[in-house]
Structure formats: C-alpha cells, structure tokens
Amino acid sequence: EDQVTQSPEALRLQEGESSSLNCSYTVSGLRGLFWYRQDPGKGPEFLFTLYSAGEEKEKERLKATLTKKESFLHITAPKPEDSATYLCAVQADSNYQLIWGAGTKLIIKP
Amino acid sequence: KAGVTQTPRYLIKTRGQQVTLSCSPISGHRSVSWYQQTPGQGLQFLFEYFSETQRNKGNFPGRFSGRQFSNSRSEMNVSTLELGDSALYLCASSSTTRTDTQYFGPGTRLTVL
Predict the structure, then answer these.
(1) Is A81 helix (H, G, I), strand (E, B) or coil?
(2) Which helix (H) or strand (E) holds A34?
(3) Fewest C-beta atoms under 10 Å: which of A41, A48, B5, B92?
(4) What's the gap between Cα A71 and its chain centre?
(5) Do B109 and A51 make contact, defined as CB atoms within 8 angstroms?
(6) Per the CB < 8 Å rule, is A42 touching B106?
C-alpha cells in the first residue's frame, strides 16, 4: 500500500538552530514528491517538487533532497517566520492522486 | 497570475442543511481537486475533476459531490450536513492531472452547529 510518513510530528528549535524534517514513502513507482508549507487556517503553499533520487532544490533557508525511500527538508538558520506545518505528498505512477503525510509542525523560538 | 480563489471563506450551517462551495482555479489550469482538512485527520482527498469529468474519488460518502464547469470552475456540495463535516475545505488546481504541481486556495472554513 502506498504510504507517506513524516517525522517528527513536531519540532521546536531556537532561532538559528538548523535541522531537518523527514518524509519517508513507500510507493510503487514515484512520479513526484511535493513539499508544502501551511500556516494555521490557510491553504498549503507550494515549496518544491522532486522527481528523481539525487535531486535537490533550494529556496532561501530551505533545501529539499530526495532518495529512493525518503526526502529531507533541511532548514538552515531558521527564523520565527519559518514556523508552520510542513507537508509532504507523493504521486505514484499508477495514480494521479497525491498521498499526503500528516505533516511536521515546526516552531522557531526567537 | 491570480491564484486559486475559494468562496465563501467562512460558513456556518446547522445539521441537516446543505452547502455549496465554489473554487476558481488558476487561469489555464484544467484540473481541480478538493480536500477536507481536520486537525485529527489531516488532508483527506475528496475528488478531482479534469475537463468537467470526475477522474478520481476519495473515500467519502455520497453526501459529498462535486462538478466542474466548462470554464474549469468547480463546486462541491455537501448535503444533510453532520457535525463531523466541520472542517477546512481546500481546493487545488493544476494544469494537468499528472505530474504538475497542485496550487491551493485559501480554503473555506465550514462550521456545522
């Protein structure tokens, strides 16, 4: 069964303290892996799409990487405004539908 | 380009009533997906429409239905509302149903009393 698991469920960091969020997946043929950021009460905001193992993408303090079994979202020197829930989703070859993880709630303390 | 818009943004209904939510996708996007998001269940897929045809459907009861118009705008309807239908309903659009990224609207917050 296709599945996405995100860890940790919640992460509290001090401002400037770098860390990584994990998204592990099992899918029969990966078509794409997506990262989104969601603020409370708002729609998810697209961050990255990764298509193949070894691919990396960066945006400001965020860097996403992909292997055959998992993806990492690295956050370098985070700021309080990076606080949000980060969602991961995968799309399989066999289906258009995205399979979503439960998200990681990130809190950056000043 | 204007983003995905959803109306209304907030809605309060009572049990047994029905509700219709609207979504206007990004210009040029032909695929619209609907999701229900609750604190305990996360993002749950409702259905997807592409060129006025439902292409995918999640595991929701028949009280949840949708449609897409020729201009790609979409509506979802929930009949006979239950307390458990209280949620944030999100619409996402993409230019095709396959690898293209989904872009989300701000959501409609539905409260059922």
Answers:
(1) helix
(2) strand A30-38
(3) A41
(4) 7
(5) no
(6) yes
